[in-house]
Amino acid sequence: xxxxxxxxxxxxxxxxxxxxxxxxxxxxxxxxxxxxxxxxxxxxxxxxxxxxxxxxxxxxxxxxxxxxxxxxxxxxxxxxxxxxxxxxxxxxxxxxxxxxxxxxxxxxxxxxxxxxxxxxxxxxxxxxxxxxxxxxxxxxxxxxxxxxxxxxxxxxxxxxxxxxxxxxxxxxxxxxxxxxxxxxxxxxxxxxxxxxxxxxxxxxxxxxxxxxxxxxxxxxxxxxxxxxxxxxxxxxxxxxxxxxxxxxxxxxxxxxxxxxxxxxxxxxxxxxxxxxxxxxxxxxxxxxxxxxxxxxxxxxxxxxxxxxxxxxxxxxxxxxxxxxxxxxxxxxxxxxxxxxxxxxxxxxxxxxxxxxxxxxxxxxxxx
Amino acid sequence: xxxxxxxxxxxxxxxxxxxxxxxxxxxxxxxxxxxxxxxxxxxxxxxxxxxxxxxxxxxxxxxxxxxxxxxxxxxxxxxxxxxxxxxxxxxxxxxxxxxxxxxxxxxxxxxxxxxxxxxxxxxxxxxxxxxxxxxxxxxxxxxxxxxxxxxxxxxxxxxxxxxxxxxxxxxxxxxxxxxxxxxxxxxxxxxxxxxxx
Lengths: 367, 197
Known about the structure:
The complex is a heterodimer. In chain A, 26% of the residues lie in helices and 29% in strands. By secondary structure, chain A is an alpha/beta fold. In chain A, strands 9-8-11-6-7-10 form a six-stranded antiparallel beta sheet. In chain A, strands 15-14-13-12-16-17 form a six-stranded parallel beta sheet, sandwiched between helices. Chain A has a five-stranded mixed beta sheet with strand order 2-1-5-3-4. In chain A, a hairpin with a 4-residue loop joins strand 6 (129-140) and strand 7 (145-154). The radius of gyration of chain A is 25 Å and the shape is elongated. Chain B is mainly alpha-helical. Helices cover 73% and strands 0% of the residues of chain B. The longest helix of chain B is centred in the N-terminal third of the chain and has 33 residues, at 37-69. The termini of chain B are close together. At the A-B interface, helix 1 of A face helix 3, helix 4 and helix 5 of B.
């Protein structure tokens, strides 16, 4: 009997002693106590040291965009470290440019708060919250784009600028054993404070869009953080050239629909909407009605490869060349673009070649 | 076994019986953390510390707990538990002392737990029937020898990354193994000076 019990007891005793030693060491070594966190020189927080900057900020209800969950792959969680953080870490190096490193930009998911620290983040991030909502409607816009409408539960209202986006959280489902965040722009107007509408195109094998298309049902609870982004209407007198493709219509719908009639008369927006064929077009009636309502607004749907049965009489071909056809003085206008990187880069190139300074081109690129 | 001076054991385990270059123990972290001299030095220090301490603790554990109870056959599991606990402690120390080293070592720090050089050190100590001082010297010497080997390799890899054109098929572990073989040949050349096994 002792032959069985003795070894088991010995090993158990040994493990216990070592565990106690580890706990004691942890207690003395890993306790950083309370430290001061200073943000933008003016806001001061008392936080418990020891965890990452990203998580420390989350505890203070400051949400830094992050898509990879702290694995140093998405590089969304960049902040400017002013003091209190050591040298750049090997895990950060591949994700930061030389200029960013020189400016002190760091990945907040890799930095640990161990002593008094100071950081700088854009002021807008303070209004970012985590929202819980309920799916109110899911409508088909085309065969692969759906409109999702979420009614907010907690907090009950959201303040955002037209053109901004939220990070939608897809929970674990099916074979996917990790929750992911993906960014989608609001397509409703900010005055509609109690709900959020998104236009989502199904990405083949996309973790988040597959969840939204195949698993999410009306009545389900959803979680998202926001609002994020610096794609919104700038105050000026210049004509607006808006270009979007597919679900890139979302932020521009929000921006255009939230403009007052006087503003539309002043800015004379022209909206080029690119699709492949007629079956990819959506909300055409809504834009036609908007055009009727505002004589200074022009809507130009274009198809890159219309099907023969489409009987398409509108514009076809490459958006950059169509823009030049409709707008005389491109150089004096302001550009608002949203869509796939390929289309966007071509359009930005065209606008720059026509003389529009790059700082007057605002865009929201899908990634 | 003839009584060897602890100092002979100490120097022999660094040079002529280098645990990595003559026994080829502790290869996985040796191959993967030898890209940068600084991280190699950090991991080397960690191995020296863990190897020395675990040799002492495991000596005590083996001769004062396992042998009297007739539980020698539990040596593997007992040694591994001690090593694992020590690595935890070292991990916390590194985390506290150097962020950069902590991030650079990343997954390899916990991997010291399964670094066979460390377990090998404890097992050799038992097989070769060292006394306490000999074990301590052997542990420290083996750790230093391991650190020396990984730093030598890191230095060579750094020079190589700047100057040499390596055949694509041999890039990475391939060329590193060949270099290690050549270094080992050099070390084996000294093995006639003193033998501890």
